[in-house]
Amino acid sequence: MNWDDLRVVAAINRCGSFNRAAKMLNVEETTIARRLARLEGSLGCVLFQAVDGQRRPTEQCRALLQPLVLMEQAAEAITLQLERQERPLRNFRLTTIDAIAQHYLAPTLADLLIAEPELSLQLETSDDNVDMARWHADIAIRLGRPRRGNFTMRRVGEMRFNLVLPRGAAPEDLVLAAYPDPLMEVPEMQDFQQYFPGRQARLRSANLRVIRVLVDSGRAAAVLPDFLSVDLVGDERFQVHRLPARREIWLLAQPHLRDDPLVRRVTNWCADLFAETLAGDAV
Fold first, then answer.
1. Same domain assignment for residues 75 and 96
2. CB within 8 A of 209, min separation 6: which ones?
3. Counting CB atoms within 10 angstroms of each CB, which of 94, 155, 174, 253 has the fewest?
4. 247 strand-pairing partners
């Protein structure tokens, strides 16, 4: 008894016709008829009858269907397992800033890797915008639209910012936390300096989670993105002021990966993570 012939029986039962079964198995309709006839000859019985334009299983066929379904499921499971073992990993380098990697990517990264068994990611974080032209990354998520470069890019989100300071504290008593000097020209730092003209920051760090912990101490003022400060809105201990600053989130990929199905699925996953930031303000 040939397994291909048994697959034909399962397909006809599922589809109800030779024509649709042929399309399902990607063979000619004559092949379906020939294999069914061969199996019926070896079994000495008719497996399907034409009823109202449909191929309906006979009583003898129905006796075969339950074990046949189990065989079909087992074959599919074995095929999937072999494909996972034989499929080589494809390695891609994805770079972004630390805060985006921790807040947006990390929570569902395992789901992506499980859904894409051939995918291997090297996730790198840096405060500097990656130089895609020098092949520092295959995929990058960065703040601000690149001015030039030979790569694919799309705007996937927007980051808004809040000034957070302890309620009732005198401004001169607060420790100011800001970015390192090379980042002081970004929009949120420009807004920050408008609130404290002439004051120097006592802590400088690009690690936003460190700044958040400092703010939680109730002795410091700092700028934090929505996703690290929205929970402080309504907290009686703090004042939270929306800043005018906005930073666009851009997704970049090397041009030769434009039509790669796996890369497209990865970049779509990345874009979905930021979709809500384009829907409206979080505060």
1. no
2. 98, 99, 102, 228
3. 155
4. 159
